[in-house]
Specification:
Blueprint (H helix, E strand, L loop, with lengths): L52 H17 L6 H9 L10 H12 L2 E5 L5 H9 L2 E5 L16 H8 L6 H20 L2 H13 L2 E4 L2 E4 L2 H4 L2 H9 L4 E4 L2 H4 L12 E5 L2 H8 L4 H6 L18 E3 L4 H4 L11
Parallel strand pairs: 1-2, 3-6, 5-6
Antiparallel strand pairs: 3-4, 5-7
Bound molecules: fe (ii) ion.
The site of fe (ii) ion has 7 residues, from helix 5 and helix 8.
């Protein structure tokens, strides 16, 4: 099913003009981020950082750690993308060479940014098939957990799936969808969709549940927890439900949402009238991140034992 191309005529975001960075309406609040003085409105670094030998080693060690864990847990498109882009060739990949290869496959490129960038600038880059990747890499001290996305999370976690034609189209459409979310002041809702798909999504493959979310695939603990632990809920993705669901940013997820294919994800989102959906949405989230609803199509009701024992920092086992 993933091999199918999506019908552009059904894309509800297709007519959005993405030439310029979208205006930030007065009533829209985004997290205040201070742009380094030497950067333009696009927040792009003039070039990729020159990494030290130790920083390249950190990449290699993170890569080796994930490759012990991901086979059989990461989705097949991710594993194929890793191989196709040869991200394990040694050291932090060169964005230029990687982008050349990626462009020839799905038209995407990877561009360096210093840190998290504002939502509206992020949308603009995605809509133009540019994936902004954090330039810096974590240190040995933060090897096991880093909250701000670094080059390992961004490149290892996100870039392989950009080789998948349907997922690549979904990401660009997500960027275009940002214009609508800004217009309706519903960034939170759109962010929840990103969170539960691009960062923490699961996909049902023929031989079992696999991860495709970059937040899962770029760390060893959640790569196992997401697909094997008893604690978290695993629920079929329903867009109306997900955009109303709160999410956890600093710990393992209490709930994961599952798709059957990237084509299904595309049909449920890009071919959907979000103007109408936003019109019916309240400003905040309706559902707690541990909730299981009567209408949910449930694959697994979690015990929530990990969260109940105190989660990250408490010594609770991710079971
Ligand atoms: Fe990410």
């Amino acid at each position: 099913m993933e091999q199918l191309r999506i019908n552009p005529a059904k894309d509800t975001t297709a007519d959005i003009d993405v030439t310029d960075i979208p205006e930030l309406p007065d009533d829209v609040f985004i997290a205040p981020l201070e742009k380094p003085k030497d950067l333009g409105d696009d927040w792009l670094e003039p070039q990729q950082r020159v990494y030290t030998a130790e920083e390249h080693h950190i990449w290699d060690d993170l890569f080796a750690q994930q490759m012990e864990i991901l086979p059989g847990r990461a989705c097949s498109a991710f594993m194929a993308g890793l191989e196709r882009l040869d991200l394990g060739r040694g050291g932090v990949p060169d964005f230029g060479a990687m982008s050349e290869e990626l462009k020839s496959i799905t038209g995407w490129e990877v561009v360096p940014v210093p840190m998290l960038i504002p939502d509206h600038v992020f949308f603009w880059h995605l809509a133009n098939r540019r994936f902004p990747a954090g330039n810096f890499i974590r240190t040995r001290e933060t090897f096991h957990y880093i909250q701000e996305p670094d080059v390992f999370h961004d490149v290892f976690g996100h870039v392989p799936l950009l080789t998948d034609p349907v997922f690549a189209d979904y990401m660009a459409a997500y960027g275009r969808a940002g214009w609508k979310a800004l217009k309706h002041n519903r960034l939170k809702a759109l962010s929840a969709l990103y969170w539960y798909t691009v960062e923490f999504g699961l996909i049902l493959e023929e031989d079992g549940m696999r991860s495709y979310g970059a937040g899962i695939l770029s760390g060893p603990t959640e790569a196992v927890f997401a697909v094997e632990a008893e604690s978290p809920n695993r629920i079929h993705l329903d867009v109306d439900r997900v955009v109303r669901t709160d999410y956890t940013i600093s710990d393992l997820q209490p709930t994961y949402f599952v798709i059957e294919s990237f084509a299904e994800l595309f049909h449920m989102t890009v071919e959907r009238d979000f103007n109408d959906l936003y019109g019916r949405l309240g400003a905040g989230f309706t559902y707690a991140n541990q909730a299981v609803l009567d209408v949910d199509r449930v694959y697994h009701i979690g015990t929530q034992e990990y969260a109940q024992r105190g989660g990250r920092g408490s010594g609770a086992q991710p079971v």
